[in-house]
Amino acid sequence: MATKDIRSQLVDILPFVNNLNSDGSSNGLIIDTDEYLSIMFTYTMEPFSDGTHTVTVFHDDGAGFTTASPIPDENVLGSFPVIEAETPQSTNILRTWGIFGNKRFIRITVVSTGTGGSQNRLKVHFMGIKKKVPVDFI
User: Fold this and answer.
1) For residue range 31-50, what is the model confidence (pLDDT) as tens digits?
2) Residue 138: Cβ within 10 Å count
3) Residue 21 near residue 120, CB atoms below 8 Å
4) Rounded to the nearest 10 degrees, how much is the dihedral formed by the CA atoms of 80, 35, 16, 79?
5) Is 0.85 surpassed by the pTM of this model?
6) β-pairing, 76-77 with 105-113?
7) Domains, the chain, ranges and CATH?
8) Which end of the chain has the smaller Cβ count within 10 Å, N or C?
């Protein structure tokens, strides 16, 4: 029987937690991906009745994010989510997507429209496998 799976080596960081209660753009943390072999995102959102939230991941060579651009579609495994008002039947689904590329820093940005002032709480988790894995995982 297996004692480890791929998720046992994942490092979980919460780069975006926000109450999306107004229209506009919200930025998450800038993450240095230099120490990771692979990157995956998951998100959870409390049920809500209005608004659309479009998630994009930006990348840049520098931590200052002065020349940041959205990660192109061909470097996205899956697709960036567009989160709309959900029915109760669809709120318990785990949604994931991944990215790859050669730029070191990434940041999640969410653009919200039609929110109507309600509290729409979104959490996006960054998960990655580190390049240097502790000996007990081998």
Assistant:
1) 898 888 878 888 877 777 77
2) 6
3) yes
4) 10
5) no
6) unpaired
7) 13-125 (2.60.120)
8) N
